[in-house]
Structure formats: structure tokens, C-alpha cells
Amino acid sequence: MNDDGSLTPVPTTFVGNKAVIKSLTNSTYVVVEGTHTFSDIQPHWAKGYIETLAAKQLVKGMTDTTYRPNDRMTRAQFAVLLVRALGLPSETYDGRFADVKGTEWFNKNGELAAAVKFGIIQGKTAYMFAPNEPITRAQAAVMIERALKLSIVGYDEATSDKTKKVTDFRDAKQLPTWAKQAIEAVYQAGIMQGRDSGNFDPTSHVTRAEMAKVLMDILELTKLI
């Protein structure tokens, strides 16, 4: 619970009637129970993921009643969701990007600044962030791998399936060099898979529904849910 009474979700697991809060700061905490659904996920393959994350206040709808699961994720949205899911502490924005004022929704509680400080995401250039640009599957894989490598996350790479290789994908030769290692890492971790076609499809965009599943997989993998 913030000083102004607003709530910021932090990773929490439950053992019987005991809440185990995994936070990086000393703060005031409150356990909130609730459910939330959206009219446009009935039915949808990601319904369960979306409702679980919405109940934990990690994802929000585009309106109070609609989630818009098939909309494309933006760079800012993806960064904010990773920061929320991992419970990274907020940071003060230093004004480094010309296209980010620091007062936008995606940095309301210092989320974007935290994503940049912890190295999860970088600018498109040293001075431009492009917050509203849709994020590709290759870019998402890189961000996820960076998040998993954070020491505070505590992900055990030994649990990855090392038999999985990027050569499993039909379009392996088309994967960008800068993303190959990350794609293989998240594939081995079981967070991202190939498409039904057998391709990884690195340049296609991540939808809001796909991000919900990715977030759940990350939280379960790192025992934060």
C-alpha cells in the first residue's frame, strides 16, 4: 500500500492461511481478494490466464469491461508488465528519452524507469524509447531472458530443457543474430514456443493474450505465484 492509499501488486504466494510476500522493499502490505473478468474474453483460449492476472492486479483492461486480447503489445506495455510481475522497485525517471516525459501511465509508479535501470529494456537509440511501438516476438524473448538473469529473480537455469535448440524451428536460419541466444533460452525454459507452422516467427507481434500466458509461465517458473 502506497502512501497515497493506492496499491501496487507484489509477488505473493500462499501457504495455508499465510501470505508470503516477495518484495524488495520494506513497505506496508495488505492482502486483497477479488476476481475480475472481461466481456471480450468469453470464450478465449487465454481466459484463465487473463482472469488470474487481473485478480492479482498485474494486468488491466483497456477499459473496465474489455481486455482486447488480440491487440498488439507495445514496448511500454511489455516492460511495465514484466516490472509488475517481478515486483521490481520503482525508480525515478532521469529524462533520458526525448519521447518520454516520465508522467505517462507507463511510468506512473516508476515502472519504465525500473525496467531501464534493471536492464530489461533499452531505448531504440540513446535518446528515443518508442514506447508505443509494437513489440516483436524476438524483442520479447530478449527482454524475458534479461529478466530471468536478474539475481533478484532467482531463476535456476539448471531446470531448463537443454535438448531444445533454435534449430528445432523451421525458420531457424531467419532468426536475427542478436536474438538467437535469448530465443533459445526462453524456449528451453518453456516460456515461448514455436507457432503451429513450426516457425518461431521472430518478426510477428505479441498480442495481449499471448503476453498473459507468458507472464503466467514466468511467475510459475520463478515461484512468484
UniProtKB/TrEMBL annotation:
- Give the matching Pfam families: SLH
Q: Does the keyword Cell membrane apply?
A: no
Gene Ontology molecular function, alphabetical: cellulase activity
Enzyme Commission code(s) on record = 3.2.1.4
Domain SLH spans what residues? Answer: 33-96, 97-158, 166-225
InterPro entries on file: Cell_Envelope_Struct_Comp (IPR051465), SLH_dom (IPR001119)
What does the UniProt keyword field contain?
Glycosidase, Hydrolase
- The top EC class is hydrolase
Under which name does UniProt file this protein? Endoglucanase
